[in-house]
Amino acid sequence: MAFDVKNKTVLVTGANRGIGKSILEEALSRGAKKVYAAVRQIESAESLVAEHGDKVVPVRVDLEDADSITAAAQTAADVDVVVNNAGVLKQKSAIDAGAIEALQFEMNTNVYGLMRVAQAFAPVLISNGGGAFVQLNSVASVKTFSNMATYCASKAASYSITQGLRDSLREQGTLVVSVHPGPIQTDMGQEAGFGDMAASPSLVATATFDAIAEGHFHVWPDPMAEQVGTAYQSFAENVVEADVQ
């Protein structure tokens, strides 16, 4: 189930910086006619509008605020591709003080936020012919790192929900894509201390739209992710992507 973004309308959450900004720019470079920059603060997208003109339309979306997502779905009623990129990270091990609170915070955005976006935009996508729904997960969705165990747990849950969306939205003709970056040069990556090992956000953007064009579910966009994806490939193909009865 491949999809061409040329002359289509795209929405990207967290589009004002990092991976989201690269995804917005990649969408435009591939011929998208319009991209909704879904951000918590509208003014944070002003530089994108200044650079790209009326091809970028800011819209308020806070993944913790269901009403903002519902309103955005009404505004972006012409959207063909939804990329849910926004997410949060708290560096907590499972035994750190505040770990439970950190996990609650991460789940609310990384998992419940994903579900809010999917529930709001699934009817929009079907009304526009099916399109594509992309979720930015992480290598942390299949491998837990002890110093960020709560984040990994939230990403494992978001990956699980994404698998469910793949099957649910396939019935309406919507392609679902699960993107699993490793360390990336973003504000979040800097806070996590990835340093020189982090890859460019442009790798994520390119691989994401390649997957949309080719109809792939899993995306492992950078060197570390490729290593994980290679090791995970058999399970992905024979279990996750298989029709297991």
UniProtKB/TrEMBL annotation:
<dbReference type="InterPro" id="IPR002347">
    <property type="entry name" value="SDR_fam"/>
</dbReference>
<protein>
    <submittedName>
        <fullName>Putative oxidoreductase</fullName>
        <ecNumber>1.-.-.-</ecNumber>
    </submittedName>
</protein>
<comment type="similarity">
    <text>Belongs to the short-chain dehydrogenases/reductases (SDR) family.</text>
</comment>
<dbReference type="InterPro" id="IPR057326">
    <property type="entry name" value="KR_dom"/>
</dbReference>
<dbReference type="InterPro" id="IPR036291">
    <property type="entry name" value="NAD(P)-bd_dom_sf"/>
</dbReference>
<keyword id="KW-0560">Oxidoreductase</keyword>
<dbReference type="InterPro" id="IPR020904">
    <property type="entry name" value="Sc_DH/Rdtase_CS"/>
</dbReference>
<feature type="domain" description="Ketoreductase">
    <location>
        <begin position="8"/>
        <end position="187"/>
    </location>
</feature>
<dbReference type="GO" id="GO:0016491">
    <property type="term" value="F:oxidoreductase activity"/>
</dbReference>
<dbReference type="Pfam" id="PF00106">
    <property type="entry name" value="adh_short"/>
</dbReference>
